[in-house]
Structure formats: structure tokens, C-alpha cells
Amino acid sequence: MRLPLLVFAGLTLAVTLAPCAAAPLEAPGEEFKLVLTPEPGQAPPARVCLASRNAGMKALRSTAGHLASLDADVTCRGADCLLAARPPRGRCARCPIEGHPDCRARLDPGDWPPADYTVVCADDASARAGGGTIFVAVESVEAENPPEFHSFEVSGGRVRWSPVRDIRRPSYRVLGGDFESSRLSYPRRPTDRPWAEVPIRRRCRCLDAQLPVGLDAVRAVQIDGAPVCRGSVGAGDLLPIEVPATARGRVRGLGIESGHARLEMAWGGRWPAAPLAPIPTRVDFGWRVPCAWPGGARCPAVRVRGARCRSTGRVDGVCRYRCSARSPGALVAPIDVDFTLDTPPLRWRDAISAPGDVSSTDVPDAQRVVWADVSAWPRAVPGDRIDAVRIQQPDGSAHTMALSADAERIWIATPGARCGLSLGVTPRGERDYLTRQAAVGEGGRLAIEPPAQQVVPWDLHLGLDGGAGWLAFPSEQGAQLQTQLTGFAALGLRLRAPGRRWFGDARIVGGAISDWAYGALGSGGDGWLTRTAPLGLLGAELTAGYSLLVERTALHLFVGGGPTMALALRDQDVGRLPHGRWLGSAVLGGQWPIRAELSTYAHVRVTLRYVFGGVVRRFETNFVNRSVERSDAAGLILLTGGLDLGL
């Protein structure tokens, strides 16, 4: 196409610039009038070029200053086009040579080569800038040769021209330029009208496209995949675009790319309705991660009805997303976006007002959660195991959360949680813990002090035991072993370093045995009749223990001893029993929780005690001499079982 155009242009310039000083001026022929009639709402061309195949046409006279030769390039060479129907009027950018192929100016010389034509042009001073150029061939069916132009002028789409010699019934045919060429000649029949009308149709129009409010800078505009000339976004978010005409039966598609969106539309008529209304088919947006977001580095998933969405990563504290429409209009703002997170389970909705919008909506107050790292909390150290944590909210309410054996973090529902919020935290388990305040930090993490810094280093216990005892002592008949019932109560203080299996107990122990043997008065020859009376024991015990983990429960073993005082429980037994006597005791025992799970308050306790230093008194008399009192050493073995209750 370029080669014929250059030949055409070169021939035109050669003819135009040829010397003509010797040629006598000839009187012009009759003036002819031509009206170039554009489509409704369209502007007439800003330049009109008349072409004739007159072989002898000489160069134009220099006195006709409004005549000009054809441009070397019959293309859109950066001319502006102003074609909006009403303000604000769009203005297409300067059209590059790489503009849409259907918008580039072109010529259709018909059955004759371009070299056969001589062209003269005139500018319309009243036309809008960017009105384009049209090439019209002038012919005469009654003349032996095509006309030779004398002069012509253009104003408002009306052309006046006169030939060098008189001709009749000239006809006009559009060769092209910025307008579509035509194989038809006008007028096609004789007419009495003073003006001959020639319909003309533009190859392209400058139409405004209505962009979504807040759309970022437009990067590319394409029609049917080819770039088109465009302006810059003006008032009302209008983008002027050079739109090529559409042939019958064809459908065109417009695509507009920005940094955060792609807009598309299609039409099948010659021209789309103005303004163009492309709709988003792809939208990018973001969500700003709040300080107390409990999801860590994870971004919430998003869902838009009628669209397919995916996360494109997290940059500078903003989660980025891209959604592609699956149904028309799904991404027209405002866009309802559902945000979800699986762990912890969160659900909320927000509206995106424009492509590229960054939402700062936080999780609703009622759904907010914080979390705490409990991976280092003791769950395998008997006596220190923690099975729950008590959380006190700022409004004074509190609730207790159970901890599983393998939990590494806990999620705490905290309505209105935000960074800096302070909560009361108390671990719960086999030990007693103090309540400490913990602040919510970045990422919704609750900064809880290690339980070792909150633990109460001592526990107060109350033990209730009962069982059997065996009193061993000598007699006339040999060693005696007397079985009796016993019961004990103990109040103790247990000391345990945090996280250690060793512990120590200091207890005050009080108890009684049902029968303590003593010998009755009688003759030496009758043997000994054994008498018994209840005896009380009151003392202190110091024990050291060690905790074992047995499957899902704990076994606490201890050993120790301490001083014990024997006390008669009845006045008449004071002289018979070892009243006020200090005894010694050795203790061996164990205890475990009533349930397999942790129990702060109740343990089953089994204790084996050996009380030594006791005596059994015997009294002898022959009723002649004075009576004789004898004391034999006695030991007491006690096996008791019962409950140990934490206070």
C-alpha cells in the first residue's frame, strides 16, 4: 500500500511544482458546487483533495494560496480528532503510525493506478482540528478528458471548484483517506440541485469511554487485539478512544488495561453507543492486614459471586487479590467481597468501591480472636501439668478453655480485640497459678508470661486416711501381733519448683488407733489378761517425693518421717498407756489423681507408716509386796488409704 501512495504523492508533487511561467491563463469554466455529507453527528473533513485523471493538467497557479499538494504520507500523522457530541468533549491523542490498522488512512484509486491522478488539496479553515482528509475523484462522462482544475475552496464541508474548460455533469467518487472509499459515483443521475451531495463515512470516530471511578492509569487500549489511538482520562473519568467502524456481520471487542483492572465490551453495529461503557472483567484489590490479625503470614481467602478469585501475595502489610469475572457485571463496583479464614474460623464481608481499592475493614468485633503459644507449657511433668487456662476479659467476664495434650497454640475469642488490649490470664492444672495481665501484640499474639513465673510454689493439702494397724509387742506367751483400726487426718504444705518432678511435704498429722494393749493386774501364775484402750497420735512429718508419669495418669511417691507424741484419749487410761511419750515414725506412700485427667483437688492416697519407740505396760503384784510395773517395747505398723484434697 505504501508504494502506490508514494508514487501517487511523487507524481502529484512533480506536476504541482512544474514550471508554468510561459503558459497563458485560461478563463475558468462554470463553477460547480459539492456538499460532502457525513453521517449524523459527524464533522466534515478538515482537508479536501480533488483528484483528476486529466493527463494535461498543468501546475496550479501560485495565486491560489489555499491549494496545496498531497502529503507524502497518506496516513494519520499525529492529527488530533475532536468528535464528542457534547461536553466534556473527548480528545484523542496524536495517532501514531502504529495505530489500529482499520484507522489508518488509505486510498482506493479503483481501476486506474495512482500515477494516473493529479491531486490538489484545500484546507477548511472553519473545520475542527483533526477532521481528517478526504480524497475525491472528479470525472465527467461527457468530456473527452477528465476535468482540469482551475481553483477550488472548502468551507464547512461545501466545496466550490471550477474547471479550466467547461464540462457538464461531473461525477464524484470517494477514493479514501480518513474516510471510506466508494465505487459509486455521485450524482448518479441528472439533477437540478445547485449542490451535488456526496455521502461520506469515516473510517474511525473518537468516542469517549466511561471508566469506573477511581481507576488507575490506563496502560493499554486495544480493539480486536490491536492498539488504538487514545487520549488521557479527563473530567468524569472519560477516556477518548479512536474507534474503527464495524462492517456488517462483524463483532468488535474493546479491551482496556490498567494496573488494577481490565475492562471489556463488544458491539456488532457500525458504531457502538456513546459513551462507551466497558465493564470490568478482571479486578485487582487489596486488604490491609490489621495489627491484631490472628492469621499470621496467611491472607484470608476471598470470594466474589460470579467471579473466580485468587491471592497474589502479601506486600507491605497488604494482601493482594485478583478476580476474573465468570458472569457479566460480576465485578462492577461496588463489589461485595466475602473474606474467610479457616483457622481460626472467621467470616466477614466488605465492599470494594473501585479497582485497586485497599480495604481497611477489620474483622467484626464479635468475631475477633487472639492466640497464645502454649507449646512450652508443661503437659508431661506430673504435678505441674496444665489442662486449662482462664481468661478474664476487660468487661470483667471470664471463661476457662481446656488444653489438649498436643496443643501448641490456643485461640481465644476476644470481642473488640486490638493491639495493646490487656487480658487477665490464669493457667489451671495440678498447681495453683497467679493471675497476670497479658497484652495483645502484633499478629494478635497474647504475650503470656511462662507459667513458671505465675505458679504458686506451694500447695495446701488436707489428707483424710483410714485403715488398719498392727501392734507388735512381747508377752508371757511370746510375741504378740494385735490388729486394730486406725484413722488419720493431715494438713500439709507441698513445695515444688516449677517444672521439677521432685517435691517436698511438711505435714501436721493427727490420728488414733482403736486399741493399744496393756497388761491387767493379776497373779503371776494366772498368765496375763491383755487389756486395750484407744490411743491418739499427734506429730509432724517431713517427706520428699518424686512424680512419675504412668500412661495418662501421674503417680506421686514419697518417703519421710518425723516425731509423733502418744496421747491417751481417756483420763482413766493416762496411767496405763504411753501418754505423753515421744515416738518416731517412718512414712512411705503414694498418691494419684482420682481421674486419669488432671485433677487439682482430689487424689487417692495410700500410706504405710511405722511408729517406733512405743511401749506396752504390764503391772504385777503378789498382794504381799508392793506391785511391780514392767514396760516392753512395742512397734506399730499402719496401712491407711484415703483422699488428699487440695485447698
The N- and C-terminal alpha carbons lie at a distance of 103 Å
Number of helices: 2
Helix content: under 10%
Arithmetic mean pLDDT:
80
Number of strands: 37
Low-confidence stretches: 1-25, 58-89
Shape: rod-shaped
Helix/strand class:
mainly beta
Briefly summarize what is shown.
The protein contains 2 helices and 37 strands. With 647 residues, the protein is mainly β. Strands 12, 13, 15, 16, 17, 19, 20 and 23 form an 8-stranded mixed beta sheet that branches. Strands 30-31-32-33-34-35-36-37 form an 8-stranded antiparallel β-barrel.
Characterise this structure:
The N terminus is likely disordered. Strands 12, 13, 15, 16, 17, 19, 20 and 23 form an 8-stranded mixed beta sheet that branches. Strands 30-31-32-33-34-35-36-37 form an 8-stranded antiparallel beta barrel. Strands 3-5-2-6-9-4 form a 6-stranded mixed beta sheet, covered by helices on one side. It is built from 2 helices and 37 strands. A hairpin with a 7-residue loop joins β36 and β37. The chain has 647 residues and is mainly beta.
Layout of secondary structure:
Elements: H1 2-17, E1 32-37, E2 47-52, E3 67-68, E4 106-107, E5 118-123, E6 133-140, E7 149-155, E8 158-163, E9 170-177, E10 196-199, E11 204-210, E12 218-223, E13 226-227, E14 238-244, E15 252-258, E16 261-267, E17 279-288, E18 301-303, E19 307-315, E20 318-325, E21 335-341, E22 346-352, E23 358-359, E24 369-373, E25 386-392, E26 398-402, E27 409-413, E28 422-429, E29 436-439, H2 451-454, E30 458-475, E31 478-495, E32 502-519, E33 530-550, E34 553-568, E35 581-593, E36 602-620, E37 628-646
Parallel strand pairs: 1-10, 2-6, 17-23
Antiparallel strand pairs: 1-8, 2-5, 3-5, 4-9, 6-9, 7-8, 11-14, 12-13, 12-15, 15-16, 16-17, 17-20, 18-21, 19-20, 21-22, 24-27, 25-26, 25-28, 28-29, 30-31, 30-37, 31-32, 32-33, 33-34, 34-35, 35-36, 36-37
